[in-house]
């Protein structure tokens, strides 16, 4: 939700251009509008350039300078207008503020500031921050004014302030991510690493309650409450520049779909120790609860089926429905919180509640340094690298593979599980070829003008239909509705008319005949049956053949949905990397 990027000491004295380029790497965090503020050389006030719309091809005419701070916005308070775009200035134009989060008490603060004569230009909650800092800085040092202002803001927020007088960028975090990059004589602040990865992988992720002052002599860390300096201990990330570039692919989404051939097998070489300890705990009687939102909740559901195969019953509670069931959680519960970003507000709320009930929290996450990571007792880092496309693909399959390995460890079959994942990858590598792509492009062309698509699957293929359908909806805006195959005859079948496309996801398992008989019920009503399965059948009008990988066939079945969604989206003129109305991490309730 919103991207933040700032630089101090730009090596080319072109800080605004550097911020523009860095923000383009963060556009997945919000694309309603963008804006940049700069301290221009030899000028007496901050200059701002801000516009509605995507930053994609944008240019800026801001003057040269060493220090700049910018933002991409996912609107919460105030409509999508140029005035509401960040940064926001104080009355003197010496303070520019950008913000990620929601200031819940902004109305009361605004009333007081209006009485003191401050003039507001936007309808946002953010603008009050600039004026409140201005007010406090009349009698205090700028860092004190910023820390005190921040303490007055209710809600989960991260702010970054560009201050003309001290020539610094000062930032505070409570709930929304912020990371400092320490380059060679250049210092960066961002909401995510890809913004500055070109320059440095030496980073420090701010914790809640921490503030940072970036000046031309480096970064100083503070505890916001006591306003005392702390030691800043950076870490070196193993991310490479290629991870944050398209690498010859037209879109990040397509690149990330193909990257799964590297990221899925990587899960077999990490987390082994943690997985075995967790397996022992589960076998000693700990109850397992899996939670997450969207794609992560479908990963949770698929994991439930994998656990069931090993004879273990686990609960799945989507994070946004967690509260009524949290009373069943206690100190013998392991709560697995699944999240790409580790910043999803609903997931964090569920985790905080589970912690209150005494549960142990296991974070199954991709992004490092997140709030979820800090809230957890154990971290299963799934190692998929930066996922830039808003639609989740490689993070999902890495989470699923990691949790699949856990279920095999519970059954004392971890080595066998590893072999199966390595084999899965070999088979996927052969199968994901030009022939498959051509078939999917043809299918996308055939479905291009459809407004409704239905999907059925049974048992482990049921969560696969949920994920497949979400990919289609997010990427192409076609209404795709998934059902458990058994649900069909209980009402859904009324939706089937002549030619209605219906995907049937299946594996070579003991329910394949039941799924095929549901398919024949749809076919009898005129539905167009598109099989996604490792076998042929007379019920299928079209077959996208996936490799037979036993219980792991769903990985291939889901990849079909990822690719089809991509080609449908491109064909229908959508932006596959940045679907409308969505943001990569949903940090509001
Ligand atoms: C789907 C998608 C969303 C996220 C959901 C949770 O492609 O991206 O459904 O999966 O918002 O996000 P994380 O995993 O960051 O907690």
From TrEMBL:
Residue ranges occupied by any SIS domain in the UniProt entry: 278-416, 443-579
GO terms for MF: carbohydrate derivative binding; glutamine-fructose-6-phosphate transaminase (isomerizing) activity
Entry keyword annotation includes Thylakoid: no
EC numbers for this chain: 2.6.1.16
Lineage of source species: Bacteria, Candidatus Roizmaniibacteriota
GO biological process: fructose 6-phosphate metabolic process; protein N-linked glycosylation; UDP-N-acetylglucosamine metabolic process
Name of this chain's protein: Glutamine--fructose-6-phosphate aminotransferase [isomerizing]
Residues passing through the membrane, by range: none
Limits of the Glutamine amidotransferase type-2 domain: 2-217
Enzyme class of the recorded protein, top EC level: transferase
Catalytic activity: D-fructose 6-phosphate + L-glutamine = D-glucosamine 6-phosphate + L-glutamate
Organism (species): Candidatus Roizmanbacteria bacterium CG22_combo_CG10-13_8_21_14_all_34_12
Gene of this entry: glmS
Keyword Repeat carried by entry: yes
Any Pfam family hit: SIS
Keyword annotations: Aminotransferase, Glutamine amidotransferase, Repeat, Transferase
InterPro entries assigned to the protein according to its UniProt record, in alphabetical order: GATase_2_dom, GFAT, GFAT_N, GlmS/AgaS_SIS, GlmS/FrlB_SIS, Ntn_hydrolases_N, SIS_dom, SIS_dom_sf
Gene3D superfamilies: Glucose-6-phosphate isomerase like protein, domain 1 (3.40.50.10490), Glutamine Phosphoribosylpyrophosphate, subunit 1, domain 1 (3.60.20.10)
